Amino acid sequence: MSLLSCRDLNVKIAKTQVCSDLNLSINAGQNWAILGMNGCGKTTLLHTLAGLLPALSGDISLSERPLYNLPRKEIAQQLGLLLQHQEDHFPGSVLESVLIGRHPHLKSWQWESEDDHKMALDALVLVGLTDFSTRSILTLSGGERQRVALATLLVQQTSIRLLDEPVNHLDIHHQHDVMKLLTSKNNIANVFVLHDVNLAARYCDHALLIFGDGRTVKGTCDEVLTEKNLSTLYQHPLKDIIHDGQRWFIAS
Amino acid sequence: MRPQSFIILLVIFSLILTFSSLFIGSVPISFQTVWASLTNSHGGSRIITELRLPRTLAAFATGALLAQAGALMQVLVRNPLADPYILGVSGGAATAVLIGMLLGLSSTFGLTGLAFVGALVAMFLVFVLAHQKGTWTATRLLLTGVVVAAGWGAAISLILTLSPANNLHGMLFWLMGDLSYSYSVSFAFFALIVGLILSMLLASQLNILIRGDKLAATLGINLKQLHIKIYILASLLTAAAVVQAGSIGFVGFIVPHLIRLTGLTDHRFLLPAATLGGGILVLVADTVARTMIAPQQLPVGIITALIGIPLFLYLLQRDAKQ
Questions:
Q1: Which phi and psi angles does B291 have, rounded to 5°?
Q2: Residue A163 pLDDT exceeds 90
Q3: A2-251, superfamily in CATH?
Q4: What is the pTM of this model?
Q5: For residues A54-62, average pLDDT
Q6: A47 contacts in chain B (CB < 8 Å)
Q7: Residue B27 burial (CB < 10 Å; 0-12/13-18/19+)?
């Protein structure tokens, strides 16, 4: 069963046609990479798929049900979105910021249980922030803040996760930790917006290339991630190199 | 300290301060007399039942309303610098009251009614102007509110300019916040308790909203509904405070911050703590205002500023060092 799908989707932002008549079906266990140049509409497409922005036309379904008819809370129980930027105008502890991820699963009058607290602390361990629970989020570095946002997404426990540049601000060690952590579950589907083709080739099985003029190319990474496609996509020549059985792309 | 203990401590503090303020004033009154007045038994004093008690309760309720409204308003416009008056609710009330005074209206009941009508008009005006086409961003709301509030400010200045000199004193007192005319203590407490219950129902959603609209939406919050609820609640709480005592500055802005600086950032604790803290601050300020140069009274707004500003700056310094 497809967790998230769209039919004949048209998305446009300002003068940029992000996609025309896009058909996608994202299934459990799949890891999709969305690639494209700055400003081609990757974030817009992700937000549209999450139901935060209206599409020009087309249908989006979440677990085979029309997305636009579902209440936000029900969407939030199945679909999580990691945003590119975190807004921190107000102080608060790291633990509080992670616990809000439990909100879709709580009744409006209900407080977080012991289990919810344990889940949040476990998530912090998973993203490498073991002793950070009482820290103020205003004192965190960019990479630490990004991993707090990831922990919030983890405790939301959704079957589909849309991630807008999840490795933004992260060092190489944490980039790989995070990508491994996110792609390790086979009952969850992930859609990553990435700028690093090699992370996409290594951790994703499917890719969607967005050219910024309405054209898109989609398929398995083996089919889609080619020198020719990527050189066109980034308007810059790329070469692929095979090393230890893994394909690597370098800009020439 | 656990948040629950902190709130209990604030409750105890509020009770002690309410009780002690009954002893403070130009006429010394014994414990027995105060007790007799409170229990409504023989030997009570009308100074307690008709002057000091209503005034003390009015001060507490006004401060509590303002701090609660301030905490909500800061979340609504996503700006920790916001105060309850920022969207012009008090400006509308003040304009209506001053027009009433200019026209020679002097009954407290009439002026209270005018203040409430003015506050509602101001609230409705900003709501309609900011809410066009269904989109309602925090920035748009803030800008609309600030501009409309500036309009009320101009109207107030115009009225003050046109008013005869013998009216000015009363008008200025009202503008700076004054509890000596507060009329409807029971209404204020009713608004306070209903308001607190309603804001507590929103509190867990506020914890999410402060992390941004988009994140709140992805976590299952219906943004439009929540914004409208907070707006109406915060405005009505402000209106209830304004009709009680005019515009008392600093309370609604400073108290939620003071509470946040003590480390209480979860709105389920922050809202009740700020409510109690606001009550305490205005109660203390009003006791000082009516006794410092007695029998002359000072506008309570001056005292809240004198107490609030140094306290705030001290906590801010301490917070920066940690």
A1: -115, -25
A2: yes
A3: P-loop containing nucleotide triphosphate hydrolases (3.40.50.300)
A4: 0.90
A5: 95
A6: 214
A7: exposed
